[in-house]
Amino acid sequence: MDASPHFLLLAATLLDSSLDDDTTLLQLHAVFGPMLLSAMQLVDRREVVHVDLGGRGLYQVSSSAGAPYTLYLDLPELPPPPAEDPRPETVEPPEENAGEAVLREATEQAARVRAVKLKAANDARLRANAEKLRHMYCPCTGWAFNALEGRHIFCKHVLAVLLAHRLGQTVRTRVGVHAAAGLLGISA
Ligand SMILES: [Zn+2]
Fold first, then answer.
1. Where is the secretion signal located (predicted)?
2. How many angstroms separate the alpha carbon of residue 28 from the centre of ligand 1?
């Protein structure tokens, strides 16, 4: 029942994108099938609730069966906000002396090095996110079925939390200790 690293990296990469273009949605649909639509409906209906327990969080997702499912998920690290546009290219400088040319070369070289470093950091983040996906768990039967079939470790609830997380559409709630204990099924 081990999901392939390639599949997890693909899922992590797709779920990392801004989810606002048709191509990404089609790719997600190719990967997750009808589960994608079910998960998006949960997000649209604001049925993904992040229960903030003071730093640590758990998620509750509505269930058609009755009580909501409670998921403890170590969520992927979101991409950094897009960098601000660098200063607009100045139109051809009129004349460049040797010193200026060297300086420009150095600046361009530094920009290339920065781009390579950024790419490496991003790749590492995506690999770490893929590893997090491997450990996602939901107590629903759909999850158990997929896992036992060796298909993947997703169900519509896990996927709904991931989509809501990426889209910033999680409903947030803070609960007191007693309510939290009730959620967790322990007495406080
Ligand atoms: Zn589930």
1. none
2. 18
pTM metric for this prediction: 0.80
- Retrieve residue 171's tokens: 């409903």
Measured distance CA(45)–CA(120) in Å, rounded: 37
| Interval 130-174: pLDDT, tens | 999 988 999 999 899 888 887 667 899 999 999 999 998 888 876
**Residues with C-beta atoms within 5 A of ion ligand 1:** 138, 140, 143, 155, 157
Helices (H) then strands (E): counts for the chain:
7, 4
Instruction: Name the token pair of 160.
Output: 């709904």
CA–centroid distance, 157 to ligand 1, in Å, is 4
Query: Backbone dihedral region of 54: left (phi > 0), alpha (psi from -120 to 50 degrees) or beta?
Result: left
